[in-house]
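User: For my dataset I need records formatted as: sequence, then structure tokens, nothing else. Please produce one.
Assistant:
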Amino acid sequence: MTVDRPPGGDAYLRNSRRPPLVRSNSSLDLQERIKALILERRLAAGEPLPTEFELMNELNVSRNPLREALKALQAVGVVEVRRGFGMYVGQLSLGGLVDELTFHGRLSLQTGRESLLQLVELREILERGLIEYLLENRSETDLTELESVLARMEEEAVHGTHSDETDRAFHELLYGRLGNPLVNRVLGAFWDALHELQSDLPPIAEDPFAMVHRHRQIYEAVRRRSQKAAVAAMVEHFAGIRERLAVPDTRAPLGPRPRRGRPTPA
């Protein structure tokens, strides 16, 4: 007896055995399945992900729910999309934290600056603890790079300026000696938020030589490996930041300001 074969032959029979596409999965569930796939395959940050078509087959989902889940994962840094190259496991990013800190900092400027002062206080607590930890656990004495940044600060002061980039480079070099890249990533989030808020703060005449002096005190304390002097110098450094925040804003209210680019660490 002859059995009629369906249109499409063997290909049709193979495809007919596949389970139907999953269309009822929530985006959150699909996001968790994609993260589980990354972990199961032991993919590292920066490594390529399967293509969209491969993920559709692997996870048995249709294109639209997959794209929705990937877009959500991209927003939180789990997935990175490089146009023309594909999808990759995302690098650790604190961009979302920076945006939230900046927004609440601007709200704080309208309601008494309490949140902004708390942000500065938290950064001070972190840096005081970090410099103590640095002196307890690191014995390196080569401070050539820090000395170079101080020389740059002094050169800027001669010209009447003090740049955020140089200030940031000093702190990143200082804590880079700990060998923990997360330290500067977390501190960088505070730097970025405060940088975004600078245009919202009233202008203040800062003595660039006073800024150099405060950083020189930190440097000398680290060079002498004096925890007490290092913490005292850090407290004085942050006192200067608080002074700026304490200046009353007498300017007329302005409309929304354009978003400023974040500085690239020197």
